[in-house]
Amino acid sequence: MEIDGDTNEDNSRRIQVRFVTKLKAPYKVPTTAIAIPSDLSRLGLSSIVNKLLQAVVSEWKTEAFDFLINGELVRMSLEQFLLAKGISAEKILEIEYIRAVAPRKEEEPSPHDDWVSAVDGSSPRFILTGCCDGLGRVWKEAGLCTHILEGHSDAISSVSIINSEALGSVTVATASKDRTLRLWKFDAEDSNDHPAMIRAFKILRGHNASVHSVAAKTSGDMVCSGSWDCTINLWRTNDSDTDGDVVSIKKRKVNSKAEQSQSEGEAVSMLVGHTQCVSSVVWPQHETIYSASWDHSVRQWDVETGKDLSNIFCGKVLNCIDVGGEGSALIAAGGSDPILRIWDPRKPGTSAPVFQFSSHSSWISACKWHDRSSFHLLSSSYDGKVMLWDLRTAWPLSVLDTHKDKVLCADWWKGDSVVSGGVDAQLRICSDISIP
């Protein structure tokens, strides 16, 4: 069987291929071998698969697909790929197809009063943002702000959802340039006509400079913070006053005044070793914290002993870090150049990245692994773009350029959406992304 694709040469050499997929019906095509032009690239291959699907399902609507040969995504013509990889075209070539990873819907932007500097999409029930106006905000969906977190006296630089599993009260943390962290509780199921103003139940003081990053322990009973004072502090998240003093604050009420107790917590321990600003921290495992710094290093810390277990130096100021991918062990980091670097600490004796992605054109501000896929992650940049990556190819799967200025933060939401914020004072949601 022969099928023509979108090719510029009628006399192009043909090769025998068989299309296979792990997708379920109605995405399956017959596995019969067919002859196709060798100069087809991804778009031409996608056109052929759609024609095969239309032959099976008459009402089939055209979709975009990606293609893998021997586990690697094809990002050039078949002929070029086979030549580059030393694969023979004399035998029937098996090509796996998957749904292309690209957003299919852009929600209405959610406006803020200043730069959107931080975002956490780890809860499927809401999105948490931090803003340079000193306020945190809770968004149930695009354009629907349900809670405003009020109390910081300077820009919020980082936010973290601590516990969102319970049906009742949710706990979150914010870090600010005012040198403090704050802990908040609210009911995520509340949906008011106007956002509810929330005050923190605990203020965490101890850093001597701006707090740049906060991350929660998986159990939710502690958070860690990285600061411009070069230290990482560990804090308890309980709302008792056993580890701090209770102070009284004024709580806003209409036509009346009320007193609300608010505790001040102190750090339970400090991790010392970085020589410049600690720009990003993550706490992916119970006993291990990872940090990135402007001193060009990524460090792994033993929480119990406070010891620095390993250092990776990359020669660049680092702005962001995340741990995930295969075995939840790969370290992704970005900083003061356009390169997103990924290390595998399980490979001893080398500090060289196992992957480097270089399609951005300016500083990288955030990177985040997908929580269900070992291949996929995103990055945001001062170039105004968010890029979606797959470890099986060096080119971005998709480029989101909905922001009008620098992108300062980005995260996954609900597994099939990307949320991002930036200098344009907008929270953007790009949804209906198909991640295998």
UniProtKB/TrEMBL annotation:
Gene3D superfamilies for this protein: YVTN repeat-like/Quinoprotein amine dehydrogenase
Protein name: Ribosome biogenesis protein WDR12 homolog
WD repeat ranges per the UniProt record: 149-194, 204-245, 271-311, 357-399
Alphabetical list of InterPro entries matching this protein: NLE, WD40/YVTN_repeat-like_dom_sf, WD40_PAC1, WD40_repeat_CS, WD40_repeat_dom_sf, WD40_rpt, WDR12/Ytm1
Domain NLE residues, every copy: 15-82
Organism: Theobroma cacao
Protein purpose: Required for maturation of ribosomal RNAs and formation of the large ribosomal subunit.
Gene Ontology CC, one term: nucleolus
A Pfam family reported for this protein in Swiss-Prot or TrEMBL: NLE
Main location: nucleus
SMART domains found in the cross-reference section: WD40
Places the protein is found: Nucleus, Nucleolus; Nucleus, Nucleoplasm
Keyword rRNA processing attributed: yes
GO biological processes: maturation of 5.8S rRNA from tricistronic rRNA transcript (SSU-rRNA, 5.8S rRNA, LSU-rRNA); maturation of LSU-rRNA from tricistronic rRNA transcript (SSU-rRNA, 5.8S rRNA, LSU-rRNA)
Keywords: Nucleus, Repeat, Ribosome biogenesis, rRNA processing, WD repeat
GO MF, one annotated term: ribonucleoprotein complex binding
Family designation: Belongs to the WD repeat WDR12/YTM1 family.
